[in-house]
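Give me structure tokens for this 411-residue protein.
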Amino acid sequence: TSNEFFKLQGKWPVAFTVWKYDFVEKRKNTISLHDFTHLKSRDLRLEWDSEKDTEEFAVPYIEQAKKVNFSAENKVDIRLLLPKIEKNSEMIPQPRYDFGRSRPERQPMYDFKRDMTKSEKNSTEIIGGLPLKDEKRNNKKTYGHPDGTFVGFMDDNTPVRLRQDTCERMTQKPDSVWFMLMTSISQVNQSQIQSGAANSRSYCAYDLESAKTLFLWFGISKAISGKYPLWANQYDIWQADFGKNPQKENVFYAMCMAYGLAQNRCVVTKFEKNNPIPDTPEVFVDNPLCPTLQDSFWQSVLQPFVNEAFSTESTAFRLVAKVTELYRYWNFHYCKGQNLYHVGLENEPYFQYFAYADFLTPHSGLVQIRKYAENQSLSDLLDRFEEINALSQSLLEEIYQVLVEDFGYFE
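Here you go.
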């Protein structure tokens, strides 16, 4: 650890290697290291000058230690699985959208966090797409555009007005779903799913193929969070090797989709008109991952694939059924096909900056329904959420098991 080598207050893992350079032209180098991260300091209290100690203790450590291939030939960037998308009549990788310019050579993601343009810096007009009363307007960065007719979300689900991006992934229908996904394994706990584009590291699932990759990425991120070997901290998320167990490929995709259905942060809200500038329209945001909304992304794209992938006995199938049953119960016993107003969510980020009354619909996000149930102490709903969470945790453990044991993810 750091404080064993340096006079520092903090403590974190330190790795080092010793190399001898010997140049040979055209030689292909492979980097393979022994993993000794499981050893404690007491394990190394040996007489290293003693031949006996070296043979009896040190040699077995080396022979039994797992080798890690740092050449990364079998660790292919998971982003390369994303299908190409059309831009200006050309098929390209999902590009990063940055300050209004498409830069396909960069990481294939979308950002609406940006620096002010030169004209904006010198302007007295309202800039950025955050609600007018949002204190984040004082940040150094700017988010979205004030005249945008589409809605994205900050990390806390504050809505932001956006313009159409260069690949036309923005939509006012619940026919796509957005992810904030981290490439670095050390940051996997930050991944989340939202109703609209995220302010950074944002990726869009707009059809089945893009959804497979993004739900897979999300599922892997959540499954390995806190469980990955220390050496993996140096890597970005890589693809699972389905070739080791091809019959489980679609099942694994569906498991990740089922987990995402139960553990997303999608919300139903609306960005009020004339905010943050006059003459901007109201924009309604529905829930793309509501299993009872007929034109949702889940119903139209994911549900048929999921139904075909796994049996009624599986944890994933039971989890999807539980989420679907909760929505039906919620509508039948509470909404009765109508919207509910003044529901005690007026201080939530997706409502607090607007003048209209906070509301819930039959298709509101799970995070919204649960918050309402907690505020009102509704045990019938909370019990159902507890069942969903228990099944979600069981499914996450299964995802990890399949990933590690069937696909050899850390081998």
